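Reminder: ligand-aware prediction takes two inputs, not one.
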Amino acid sequence: EAKAGGKATWARFEPRMRNEVVSHARLGSELHNAIIRHELYLRYQPVFDIVTGRIAGAEALVRWRHPVRGNVPPGDFIGVAERSGLIVPLGSWVLREACEQLNAWQAEYGSASIQSINVNVAARQLREAGFVDEVAAVLSDARLMPANLVLEVTESSVLDGRQVRETLQALHEMGVRLALDDFGTGQSSLSLLRAFPVDVLKLDKSFVDGICDGEDRGRLAVAAAVAQLAEYLDLYAVAEGIETAAQMEKLRTMGYRLGQGYHMAEPLLPDEMAAMMAAAARAVAAA
Ligand code: C2E
Ligand code: MG
Ligand code: MG
Ligand code: MG
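Here is what comes back for the chain with C2E:
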């Protein structure tokens, strides 16, 4: 009876599990083709100075336009790409594309262009022996200074051992800036800040979500503490996922200078970014 029950349970779950494995495997091979077939593109979410309202930079976010499935969100394929190792060529493409785009904007809009671009980097990429050389080559090909590039890494990927630590140190010595993404959600935030050459803390959206909820003192406390920490350690603090004017105002009073979120702008197509910079250039010319 128990055996039959076990069997029935297995029979009930097995097809679903197999489908999941097959669809991940298929997604993986399709992703491999996506890179070759140019189905990937980037959107750019502006980072704003929330005191002056000026655009301060942008984060490159990868998108996949699948010929049959339509737009596949990164949440559905970045994990697959990490497990299969495809994140390495995918990440290389993102880095190069974002840097070339920034170079094109700087050439077109000069001082009205954004001056830095944020690129998300997975742990797997940091473990590649040639990563530092690759970054140097991409910057040089795109005629950018290292300070024009901000690499976003998560706390868990930073804790990935000695080689990753050396890689981050080498990037820092080169002048590339490092941001800790989803800050506050990891395990050992505070000790990390002493051990790694971090420049930017990106307060995770989950804390921003709670700051205007009078009942939720915990998330408010984390948001306020991160702003203080950044000030004492001379780091930039960026609040992400700002969806309302009230959240932006609250963050400003806490000391946040930089923010990202749908309230100000969603991730934009290059043309939409260009329109913002063109408007900024006209404002400068008119002044
Ligand atoms: P992330 O780096 O923390 O990026 C922020 C995510 O929050 C983006 O989702 C962005 O579109 C979304 N977002 C921004 N403002 C708001 C808001 O006000 N409300 C809400 N609900 N969401 C907001 P996206 O583009 O879907 O990317 C999800 C994650 O996928 C990223 O989180 C990052 O971890 C990963 N990812 C995206 N592009 C890349 C990439 O090129 N390489 C790597 N390794 N990971 C990437
Ligand atoms: Mg990010
Ligand atoms: Mg983030
Ligand atoms: Mg995130």
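Residues 45, 61-62, 73-75, 78, 91, 94, 120-122, 152, 181-182, 240-243, 260-262, 267 surround C2E (ligand 1) (CB under 6 Å). Residues 65 and 234 are 40 Å apart (CA to CA). We will return to this case in the review session.
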